[in-house]
Amino acid sequence: MTIIATDLDGTIYKGHTLIDGVKKGLLKIINEGIEIYYTTNNSSQSPNEIKDKLENLLQLDIDISKVITPLVIFQNLYSDKKLNIYIYGSDNLKKYIKNLNMNVTSLENAEVILIGRKEENNNSEINKIIKNVSSGKNIMCLNKDLTFPTEFGEKAGNGAVVKIIEDELSIIIPTLGKSGNHYSSYFIQNKITVNFVIGDRVDTDIIFGKNLNAKTFLVSSGIKNYLDVNIADIQLNKFSDVVSFLTKQS
Ligand SMILES: [Mg+2]
């Protein structure tokens, strides 16, 4: 069976709008019997919210087990532990982590710090985190995206805060996002052999595809890349351009 992993933001939709041709393309792929994983670094919405968004936009039923976000990776890693965790992020994120039976606590009492995304970054909070990490506290992040695309252009992402901390302390913070080992390990552990990866970012989607030894397609419908676009196996304008490659080979 052929399995593809497609990115969402900048590949399937931008903000609340489907990218041209996506629905038709997806239907053709599904009709070929190709299995689709919906992969995203977005962690400001729960996997269920992302499933609902996809179902509303596409008017298709989406299997929740096919929606893989950094929160799914987090849950998979720590499902058997009750972590004392400090969260830099939105109230929604804190609520979600609490519902996984984690103890969301203060910086002082935390055994691990998780960096997510906030609407407005808080410099004094970031400085306190830097102090705690420099004195030995564990830290990880949901993703390292410096920006993310919206209908109104690119906005600052999780990675902006991660980079401040990494640069200040000269460390590399482990990520639960697509570019990290935890994300690709999820597919390997669950024996999901991804043949093709489609996305708009070299630093996340294409790296993820390379980690899985999949064939990688880079679309130019999303963000502007700062890494070499030639790292991708094939460059396309948009998601629907991938259909002819997939239906030919299967
Ligand atoms: Mg994207």
Secondary structure blueprint with pairings:
Elements: E1 3-7, E2 13-14, E3 17-18, H1 22-31, E4 35-39, H2 47-58, E5 67-68, H3 70-78, E6 84-88, H4 91-99, E7 103-104, E8 112-115, H5 123-134, E9 138-141, E10 147-150, E11 153-156, H6 158-169, H7 181-189, E12 196-199, H8 202-211, E13 215-219, E14 234-236, H9 243-249
Parallel strand pairs: 1-4, 1-12, 4-5, 6-7, 6-8, 8-9, 12-13, 13-14
Antiparallel strand pairs: 2-3, 10-11
Helix pairs in contact: 5-6
The chain binds magnesium ion (MG).
Magnesium ion (MG) binds at residues 7, 9-11, 199-201, 222.
Question: What is the compact description of this entry?
Answer:
Helices cover 36% and strands 20% of the residues. It has 250 residues and is α/β, with parallel strands linked by helices.
